[in-house]
Records
---
Amino acid sequence: MRRKDESKKSVILDFIDGYYNEYNEIPAVRTIAEGTGIALATVHRYLLSLKESGNLEYNGRKSISTKRIDMESRHASAPVLGYVRCGEGEEETEEVIEYIRLPESLVGTGEFFVLIAKGDSMIDAGVNEGDYVVIRKQNTASDGDYVVALYEGLNNLKELVIDNGRYILRSCNEDKETYPDIYPRDLKIQGVAVCVMHRLKKRR
């Protein structure tokens, strides 16, 4: 009997997770019963048992959340949209290369996209060529933020400096002759960098 009980519990958990993945919402108890072929009263009893064992949260009605759903809800899926220059700007392009999952504990909440760094003008901020830069999508930024900015039709990753209301795009590289400050007349903030991901290189 115990093996049969565990089997039905597994069926119920799998159905809840599968339903959430497909519809992005929690199924009602009646929906679980109809989808699994298990009697409504039995589903309710198993849900209470699963709650007691710590496998899910259930308030006796529709509020059901499994451990897997809790983990899913703490991640964001972000598209990798190609490259961003860390140096001279280049024309804005958008091409979805892939999607990656980002933990909320690392990047926070919001809508994100990812760009691959090109150039070395931001190396003193820890951004090297080939790094994946996670950008929170927003059209405003504060002094000192690292921003993806569109100016004069060109896209770039720079530090935003605000001096007496004037916007300056500044590289994070000691070579100021190669990477001078940019004083854009028309500036559009596309997002703020929140995280950088890169592969570790062997020392030898």
Note: The first strand starts at residue 56 and ends at 58.
---
Amino acid sequence: MDLLREIQATAVDPDYTRERAWVQGGYGHRWAQLPVFVVATMLFAMSAVMTTRAAPQVAKDRAATIAAVQAAQAQQDSLRKQIATTQSEVNALQQQGLASNAGNARIAAQLDQLSVPTGATAVTGAGIVFVVDDSPSGAADARVIDTDLQQLTNGLWQAGAEGIAVNGHRLTTLTAIRGAGDAITVDYRSLTRPYTIEVIGDPNTLQQKFISTDGGVWWNYLEKNIGIRVTVTRPKSVSLPAATRVTLRHAKGGTS
């Protein structure tokens, strides 16, 4: 009898009973979530509408900013050319003034000798050209950064370079190579990749000496382990422009 009573009391499978109770309770839970769903949908729709309406203005502002930057860069290029022209005129007048007096020949020779390493005058001579670029992988950690160019140029100076230009910008002892976001700047002038480093010096020894410098070791690692691309050529001659800014920050003229 006890067995029959138990069968009658549990005629419905216990799993079915639990599932049924969950479903019945679930509908109530779902109805409770409906207002939240409606509000979220409305907010999403409003956000989409506002974004769509703001898109033309954002594009317009972006275009205006790009145009302003390009105009400023063009003006800066024009001013740099004017500075270079004026500097050439000053150098010519200086040479004329010294040539008028035979006793100034020694001073003129010293100025000619110092004008090359200081970047005060344009130069042409034998040398090598480095062209470096990011790794083809496109990985964020496989890009050329400002520190890499600093290591490269410092190593070249150490190897005996007499003059260096990066993407046409002549380097001096006061030239700053820095990073600005994703860009690299030389004296606050943004560079575009690939980066061309023109070097005047003995092409027969310059590259070999560079390999043994800290900069050479640095770039050997970048090329073999990171995939940074490096090509070196030896043209018939290398021409470097004069530096657009040759100034002294602390040094002052002395008396002999």
Note: Helices lie at 2-9, 14-99, 105-118, 146-158, 206-211, 214-226.
---
Amino acid sequence: MPRPSDRAWGLVVALGLLAGPACSSRVERQVVDVGRHRVRFVCPAGWEHLDHGRQQLFRRGESQLSLTDLGPATPAAMVEELAAAERLWRDGRRRDAFERVRELRAPALRFAPSRQRADFWKPWTDVTYVPEAADSAAIGPAFAALIEGTKVFAEVTPEHMVEYVVILASDGRGREIAHRERRTIHGAPWIEVETWDRVSHLGRSRVAFVVDRGYLLALAIDWGRFERTGPVFEAVLASLEVTADPPR
């Protein structure tokens, strides 16, 4: 768990950040769609909020936090992604459909044995190895094979879910988990993780995530001095409310 003194100080600073003027001239709870998620939050005083759809950025000087849709967390959500890609293809948007399949990622895929991953992708790559020359009559069955193939993946363990989020949040840099804890924020079960450099045990950072209807939503410190970003991270996290409404 994060150190009690850190948490207490973070809460004090967070209250101050949320009480002051936010991104505009007054404090207000904003509603944004972050990929598959609709969230409400309060932007901390003096920080700029940039809406990039699947990723929301919070910046001030040399510091940045991000709130990101990290994609499917479960095999069922993988099926949703593949079904959405298939609809794009049937609507005549072949390139967009193929790109959506290419970008598919999930913890089940990440931690599956290499042979299992190869078997999962084989029906698709056999048909789309040269995308422009892919036989339309074979693409539908290839989608069906991918969707059927999601059934072979094992349920992701909590440890692998945490590791997966840390890897994505740190862009693969060598981070080690120092502390982690479960937190309920506005009724949602978040997991907060503190990391540091694997070798030096310096460079503290934080990431928190929640699984919302099968998809991962993560708040992370991207860069900046922890003394500045830590309290802001706490402020944004404490204000985050994942709503039941679907994105627009």
Note: Strands lie at 29-34, 37-42, 48-52, 55-60, 63-72, 175-185, 188-197, 205-212, 215-223, 241-242.
